[in-house]
Amino acid sequence: MKTLNKALQNKITPQQALELLKAGNTRFVENLRINRNLLQMVNETSDGQWPMAAIVSCMDSRTSAELIFDQGLGDVFSIRLAGAIISDNVLGSLEYACKAAGSKFIVVLGHTKCGAISGACDAVEMGNLTGLLNKITPAVFAEKTIGENRNSKNPDFVNAVTNIHVERSVQAIMEQSNILREMILKGEVGIIGAIYDVVTGQVSFMEHTLILNNKSEEIPAVAV
Fold first, then answer.
1. Is the sign of the CA dihedral 196, 197, 201, 202 positive or negative?
2. Phi, psi at residue 122, to the nearest 5°?
3. What pLDDT, in 10s, does the model give residues 149-203?
4. I need a surface site. Which of 19, 152, 156, 205 has the fewest CB within 10 A?
5. What is the Cα–Cα distance from 47 to 131, expressed in whole angstroms?
6. Is the confidence at residue 6, as pLDDT, over 80?
7. Band of the pLDDT at 2, cuts 50, 70, 90?
8. Cβ distance 76 to 130 under 8 Å?
């Protein structure tokens, strides 16, 4: 498989970038990962990088984007922090990835059994972690379907909050970055939310959050 270069990156459409990520996760789940010459990829990317996608995911040790989507060195930007929260720094990183470096797709990737989501469900307070979890708390309050056992001991509640948090994160990117919003509405970049299952290795793409080739001037709404 060829290492991405500028010419190849330019030819990839947002839809193709999404399909490449989906195919990569299928290979990962089926243990059919591409055999890559990593040293050769180091050499081929030493003078520059042209990733096709940017993935915002959790710092959880089980959620390495390159492995989950079976990508090589230089193929994706990986932005990782607890809970995959959206902050000014994350938005700046995504703007660099798409506007400056030419990436064609953004994935906001949550995952099952997330410690940060569980902490927010339990209203944990601990040093600087408190402020981080507070960015997830709105998703906890937005979850209205479960009335009892609204804490980390209820996996259904944690999963529901995770889904809402990912949906809200996609919406936050659209609302808080004029650069990314313009590129997405012009069809230059696509965006979607997704959930990684730490038990099966499978990524479930949240198709209702997909924004691709949308020409509307209004910010597409997602269910929260």
1. negative
2. -95, 5
3. 999 999 999 999 999 999 999 999 999 999 999 999 999 999 999 999 999 999 9
4. 156
5. 38
6. no
7. low
8. no
Token code pair at residue 222:
């997602």
The answer to whether the Cα torsion of 184, 189, 190, 191 is positive or negative is negative
Residue 42 has what pLDDT?
78
**CA 194, 195, 198, 200 torsion-angle sign:** negative
The residue behind tokens 């090589």 is 72
Those residues whose C-beta lies under 8 Å from the C-beta of residue 60, and which sit 6 or more positions away, are 111, 114, 115, 198
Strand order in the sheet with 203-211: 76-80, 53-57, 105-111, 190-196, 203-211
Give, as one character, the DSSP assignment of residue 100: I
Residue pLDDT, tens place only, 48-96: 778 999 999 999 999 999 999 999 888 999 999 999 999 999 999 999 9
CB-count burial class (<10 Å; 0-12, 13-18, 19+) for 178: exposed
Tokens standing for residue 131: 């402020």
> Hey, is 166 helix, strand or coil?
helix
Task: Quickly tell me which residue has 């659209």 as its tokens.
Answer: 174
What values do phi and psi take at 13, rounded to 5?
Answer: -90, 165
